[in-house]
């Protein structure tokens, strides 16, 4: 079964590059109108123009800072102003920091939690009634393989992604029978701008995937009649995530600490 999104709109945060931009293009190819969200207006406008031309869909651009309550409000207003009902929400916006927690910039930590956790939660709460009224679609929350174990030297990032995973899995149960699915997409190291923001590729684990490969994983899940609540991109990543659940916690922490430089 191939998911047909004609007649609905999709909200994608963090859409200016990387996984967000690729997922937005895939949604447009399946007929969804788009509300694209990021801080970089020029990137959004460029992507929007290309998707309008290639797929004939309506695309609204919302340059918003989701670390602020006003940014979240702007996105909700734009989504509800679209001509078609919201059928898909992709909470992709997020970033990570790397280094000893005691040395972290407090404002940077605040922004990391605000974007990765608070904005994702508030957007989901605000737009979920719209999806339920449409009685079909999905909330896709981009977590990470970082969600499956604590990450020394990326303590805040790992904790935020663990929240995303737990929140989404719980939501998936609450949504049973509604026609709306909740999916936690868990990529590993991916060739995007993520590590440019982090400032180092030192914490990257395993072989890098491309954003297209991660999107392939997501859409295979979306095309299932009953999508799984947690979808890990890449076989090696999926195996590693499974092993975390069976190995003693102290061994997991010791192994992760060596990889991340903790």
UniProtKB/TrEMBL annotation:
The keyword Oxidoreductase applies. GO terms for cellular component: membrane. Keywords: Oxidoreductase. Signal peptide: none annotated. One of its GO terms (molecular function) is oxidoreductase activity. The keyword NADP does not apply. InterPro entries: KR_dom, NAD(P)-bd_dom_sf, Sc_DH/Rdtase_CS, SDR_fam. Residues 8-186 form the Ketoreductase domain. Belongs to the short-chain dehydrogenases/reductases (SDR) family. This is SDR family oxidoreductase. It comes from Isoptericola sediminis.
């Amino acid at each position: 079964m191939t998911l047909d999104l004609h007649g609905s709109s999709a909200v994608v945060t963090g859409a200016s590059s990387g996984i967000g931009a690729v997922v937005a293009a895939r949604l447009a190819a399946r007929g969804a109108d788009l509300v694209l969200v990021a801080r970089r207006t020029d990137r959004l406008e460029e992507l929007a123009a290309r998707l309008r031309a290639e797929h004939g869909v309506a695309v609204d651009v919302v340059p918003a800072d989701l670390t602020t309550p006003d940014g979240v409000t702007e996105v909700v207003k734009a989504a509800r102003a679209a001509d078609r009902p919201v059928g898909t929400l992709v909470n992709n916006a997020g970033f990570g920091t790397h280094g000893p927690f005691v040395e972290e910039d407090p404002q940077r930590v605040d922004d990391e939690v605000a974007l990765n956790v608070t904005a994702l939660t508030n957007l989901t709460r605000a737009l979920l009634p719209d999806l339920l009224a449409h009685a079909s679609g999905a909330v896709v929350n981009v977590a990470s393989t970082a969600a499956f174990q604590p990450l020394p030297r990326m303590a805040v990032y790992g904790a935020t992604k663990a929240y995303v995973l737990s929140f989404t899995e719980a939501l998936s149960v609450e949504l049973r029978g509604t026609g709306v699915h909740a999916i936690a997409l868990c990529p590993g190291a991916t060739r995007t701008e993520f590590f440019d923001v982090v400032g180092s590729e030192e914490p990257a684990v395993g072989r890098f995937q491309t954003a297209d490969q991660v999107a392939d994983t997501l859409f295979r899940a979306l095309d299932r009649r009953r999508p799984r609540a947690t979808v890990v991109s890449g076989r090696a990543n999926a195996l590693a995530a499974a092993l975390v659940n069976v190995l003693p916690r102290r061994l997991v922490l010791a192994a992760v600490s060596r990889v991340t430089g903790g």
